[in-house]
Specification:
about 90 residues, alpha+beta, rod-shaped
Length: about 90
Amino acid sequence: MIHIEDIHPLTDFQRNAKKHLTRVNRTGRAEVLTVNGKAEAVLVGKRSYEQMVEAMEELETLKSIRRGLDDMEAGRTVDAKRVHERLRKL
């Protein structure tokens, strides 16, 4: 959730970048940067960004597992014995 105090003009960020970076890293809360009163960018701290990337990677892993289970249920698999036989012929 974005708090009103986390919304700042881009020009303020440009003038006080270090202050903004310190705040997002200290609080863990994102900052919305605006241009002409409209949201244009979101600034997140390093730790928050790393957590988002980790969560996306976990989601991709879960999607891959789901695809594998769906393939098994639909019969789109090859048993290990057949795979080993094919590999031996190579």
